[in-house]
Amino acid sequence: MSASTLVDQKAQPETVALFVSDLHLSAQMPRTAAAFFRFLNEEASTTRQLYLLGDIFEYWAGDDDLDDPFNRKVVDALRALTDSGVALYWMAGNRDFLVGDAFAQATGMRLLPDPYVADIGGQRMLLVHGDAQCTDDKDYMEFRSQVRNPAWQSAFLAKPLAERKMIIQGMREGSRDAQREKSMAIMDVNTTEIARLFDAQQVDIMIHGHTHRPGIHREAQRVRYVLSDWDCDGDVTRGGWIAADSTGQLHVHTLR
Ligand SMILES: [Mn+2]
């Protein structure tokens, strides 16, 4: 065996965790859903941990919608993954924060708080969805504190499923109109808020999604990775994931 072969083997540490967010899965985006199922089969199945970091679904009306055929397909695919021994973690996004214990039980996943610090490959990694850091968008922050309130959630979940879906549909149309009017800057995370979060959690690595602005932002020793949203149903394919190896290094993968 040559020396270069030894070097090559050493250069390939095992992938131990994958991170993904903002798939916005719905029955209306069949190619995006197919790409996610392929990702679960081909990528996630070969790793130890998969972190779903929010807005995996375009919306979630409540765990009593688990019997919807599309939702059932997603749940079954996640269940197959956890049954195969991959640990699955879920962080709520701004669209699927009503996912609850019944969903967690059906899939075998663990619900994480936002923010959450994971220890992977000897590195502390701060995970957030990203919407709570978009503090320049005052209207959204107000809306967020309302819908994340447990009292609001139990009142909402007490309504019939069909009524909840109609309300959500109305909110989605309203939010599309609002987004058109808002400047691009207030739709991104606030950098002071990001710095405050790095300080508070005493970490140098952060991973989030939500903004649909994939990238890597370095400042001094700190690195912030922004996950891509997924869209395989439009003209241009968008999507990808981040992989962590056993040494705590992160690698960005773009969907082809
Ligand atoms: Mn989001």
Shape: globular
What share of residues is helical?
A: 25-40%
What is the first-to-last residue Cα distance? Answer: 35 Å
CATH superfamily: Metallo-dependent phosphatases
What is the element string, with H for helices and E for strands?
HEHEHEHEEEHHHHEEEEE
Number of helices: 8
Strands side by side in the biggest sheet: 4-3-2-1-10-11
Q: Tally of extended strands?
A: 11
Task: Tell me about the largest β-sheet.
Answer: 6 strands, mixed
CATH class designation? Alpha Beta
Structural category is alpha/beta
**Rg (CA only):** 19 Å
Say what the CATH topology is: Purple Acid Phosphatase, chain A, domain 2
Assembly classification? single chain
| Known CATH architecture | 4-Layer Sandwich
Tell me the fraction of residues in β-strands, as a range: 15-25%
Topology:
Elements: H1 3-10, E1 15-20, H2 30-42, E2 49-52, H3 69-83, E3 87-91, H4 101-107, E4 110-112, E5 116-120, E6 123-127, H5 138-147, H6 150-157, H7 161-181, H8 191-201, E7 205-208, E8 215-219, E9 222-226, E10 240-245, E11 250-254
Parallel strand pairs: 1-2, 2-3, 3-4, 6-7, 7-9
Antiparallel strand pairs: 1-10, 5-6, 8-9, 10-11
Bound molecules: manganese (II) ion.
Manganese (II) ion (MN) binds next to loops.
